[in-house]
C-alpha cells in the first residue's frame, strides 16, 4: 500500500504578492510518500485559495478519504520523480541544461535602481512583474523601466484580475518600440476567446491559470503564443502535448511555493529544455526572494538567474527532509 506522511509549513512573504494575495503567511505542506516497493519520494503541496484552490486541509482530508485533488495528483507525480532519482542515487538536476530564470517582482513599487543594477550585473535579462492593482501607475512604471533599461525584457502578469477596458487602458501608452521589449502578458483578462483575440492585438499573450478553462485536446486557434506550465498544478505531459500540437512556446514556473517545489519545477524545466530546446523559453522557477529565507532556501545554490545545485539526491535537501517530524496521514 502507498503510504503518506506530511509536514505543514508557513512561508512569510517579503512583500505583497501582486493583485491576488496580501502579505500574510502562506500555508502548504511537504509530503513524504512511500510506494509498496519501498521507494520514498518527497514533494510539496501549496494551494492558492486566492486563485480558487481549496485550503490545505481539504486536500489532506480528501487524500485520507482516498480522493485525489489535481494538486495532490501533481504532488504524487513529482514525489515519484524524486523517489526514482533517489533510488538511482542521482540528483534530478544532474545532466540537464541549466535554464535561465526571470527575476520576479511581486510589487512593482519595490523596484529600485540598486536592484536593477544588481540584476544586470548578475546576468538577469528578464523581469516579470505582477500587475493589475493600480493600472495607471503600473503602466507608467513599466514604460519608464523599459525605456531606461534597454538590456531588459519584461513579462507582465495580471492573473486575470482586470477587464478588457482596463487592460486596454494599461496598454494604450505603449509604442511599437516599447512592445519589442514586452515578451508577453500573462492572463491579461479572464478567459473569453473573442476578448483575448482583441487583447492579442495590444500585446503578445501568455496563458497561465486561465488554461483550466480550455479543453486541451480539442482547442484550436490560440490567441496566445506562450503557455505557462506549473508542474505543481498541471498535468505536465498533457500541457506539453497541447504546446507541441499548437506550435506554442512554454515557460515552466514554480507555484511560488516551498523550495522543494522550486527544485521540482526547475528539474521539469531542465528536462524539457533538453528535449525541446526551441520550445522552452526562460523559466520562472527561482522565486525564492518572494519569501523570508528558511533553512531549505539556504541549501539552494543559485548564481544570478541560474539554479546550480542542491546537496543530496532527488530534489536534494536530504539532511533537512530527514530531520522533519512527519505526521502519518492515517493515524
Ligand atoms: Mg501567472
Task: Detail the topology: elements first, then pairings.
Layout: E1 3-11, E2 26-34, E3 40-45, H1 56-64, H2 70-87, E4 103-105, H3 113-122, E5 126-130, H4 135-148, E6 153-157, H5 164-171, H6 176-179, E7 182-186, H7 193-199, E8 205-207, E9 226-229, H8 236-245, E10 249-252, H9 259-275, H10 295-299, E11 301-303, E12 306-309, H11 318-323, E13 327-328
Parallel strand pairs: 4-5, 5-6, 6-7, 7-8, 8-9, 9-10
Antiparallel strand pairs: 1-2, 1-13, 2-3, 11-12
Bound molecules: magnesium ion.
Magnesium ion (MG) binds next to loops.
Distance separating the two termini: 15 Å
Order of helices and strands: EEEHHEHEHEHHEHEEHEHHEEHE
Which molecules other than protein and nucleic acid are bound? magnesium ion
Largest sheet: 7 strands, parallel
Structural class: alpha/beta
List the main descriptive attributes of the protein structure presented here:
331 residues; alpha/beta; seven-stranded parallel sheet; four-stranded antiparallel sheet; 19% strand; globular; binds magnesium ion
Amino acid at each position: 500500500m502507498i503510504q503518506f506522511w506530511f509536514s505543514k509549513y508557513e512561508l512569510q512573504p517579503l512583500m505583497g504578492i501582486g493583485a491576488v494575495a496580501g502579505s500574510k503567511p502562506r500555508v502548504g505542506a511537504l509530503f513524504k510518500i512511500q510506494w509498496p516497493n519501498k521507494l520514498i519520494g518527497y514533494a510539496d503541496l501549496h494551494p492558492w485559495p486566492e486563485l480558487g484552490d481549496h485550503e490545505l486541509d481539504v486536500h489532506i482530508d480528501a487524500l485520507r478519504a482516498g480522493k485525489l485533488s489535481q494538486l495532490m495528483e501533481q504532488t504524487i507525480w513529482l514525489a515519484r520523480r524524486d523517489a526514482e532519482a533517489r533510488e538511482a542515487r542521482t540528483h534530478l538536476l544532474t545532466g540537464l541544461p541549466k535554464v535561465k530564470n526571470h527575476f520576479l517582482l511581486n510589487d512593482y513599487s519595490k523596484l529600485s535602481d540598486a536592484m536593477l543594477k544588481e540584476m544586470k550585473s548578475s546576468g538577469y535579462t528578464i523581469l516579470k512583474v505582477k500587475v493589475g492593482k493600480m493600472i495607471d501607475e503600473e503602466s507608467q512604471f513599466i514604460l519608464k523601466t523599459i525605456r531606461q533599461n534597454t538590456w531588459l525584457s519584461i513579462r507582465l502578469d495580471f492573473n486575470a484580475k482586470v477587464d478588457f477596458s482596463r487592460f486596454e487602458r494599461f496598454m494604450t501608452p505603449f509604442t511599437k518600440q516599447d512592445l519589442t521589449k514586452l515578451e508577453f502578458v500573462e492572463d491579461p483578462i479572464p478567459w473569453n476567446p473573442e476578448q483575448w483575440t482583441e487583447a492579442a492585438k495590444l500585446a503578445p499573450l501568455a496563458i497561465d491559470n486561465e488554461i483550466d478553462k480550455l479543453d486541451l485536446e480539442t482547442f484550436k486557434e490560440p490567441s496566445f503564443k506562450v503557455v505557462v506550465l506549473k508542474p505543481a498544478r498541471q498535468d505536465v505531459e498533457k500541457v506539453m502535448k497541447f504546446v507541441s500540437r499548437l506550435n506554442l512556446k512554454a515557460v515552466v514556473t514554480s507555484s511560488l511555493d516551498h523550495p522543494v517545489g522550486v527544485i521540482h519545477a526547475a528539474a521539469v524545466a531542465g528536462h524539457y529544455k533538453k528535449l525541446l530546446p526551441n520550445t522552452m523559453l526562460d523559466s520562472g522557477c527561482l522565486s525564492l526572494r518572494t519569501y523570508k529565507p528558511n533553512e531549505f532556501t539556504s541549501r539552494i545554490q543559485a548564481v544570478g538567474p541560474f539554479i546550480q545545485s542542491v546537496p543530496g539526491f532527488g530534489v536534494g535537501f536530504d539532511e533537512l527532509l530527514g530531520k522533519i517530524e512527519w505526521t502519518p496521514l492515517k493515524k
